[in-house]
Amino acid sequence: MKEEEMKDIERGEICYFCKTDLKKVDRREKIDLRCCQLIAHKKELFQWFLKHQYCPNCLAEDKKTRQQILDWGLKKETKKKKTKKSIEHKKWKEQRYEKKLRETKKK
């Protein structure tokens, strides 16, 4: 990692993981870890904490923050699945309706 990138990470200007600019990101999409003030996207930290028990920067174990991130990520994943199912269900209903229309027109 470049020295300049490290300074940007320390200042909270870029994400620790994906190195994208955090200045323009909604505050709800990023998080500041208490152990070392690391700032990153919640989705990136969620992926990290699925596999690891400790902070990616200082290696401290902050169970409370980790649990908060995991809860946030799992809630978000559940919403995605529900939305996908509801879209599939709507498509199925539309197809069924169109099929009935075609059948009634044939008669």
Tell me about this structure.
By secondary structure, the chain is mainly alpha-helical. It has a single domain, classed as Herpes Virus-1. 59% of the residues lie in helices and 6% in strands. The chain is built from three helices and two strands. The chain has helices spanning 3-11, 42-51, 63-106; strands at 30-32, 39-41. A hairpin with a 6-residue loop joins β1 (30-32) and β2 (39-41). α2 (42-51) packs across α3 (63-106).
Structural features:
two-stranded antiparallel ribbon; 107 residues; elongated; 59% helix; 2 strands; Herpes Virus-1
Ordered list of secondary-structure elements with their pairings:
Blueprint lengths: L2 H9 L18 E3 L6 E3 H10 L11 H44 L1
Helix pairs in contact: 2-3
What's the CATH class, please? Alpha Beta
Structural class: mainly alpha
| CATH fold description | Herpes Virus-1
| Rg from Cα | 22 Å
Care to count the β-strands?
Answer: 2
User: Can you tell me the CATH architecture?
Assistant: 2-Layer Sandwich
Overall tally of domains: 1
* Biggest sheet architecture: 2 strands, antiparallel
The neighbouring-strand order within the major sheet is 1-2
Enumerate how many helices there are, as a single number. 3
The rounded distance between the terminal residues' Cα atoms is: 71 Å
Structure summary:
The protein has 3 helices and 2 strands; from the N terminus they run αββαα.
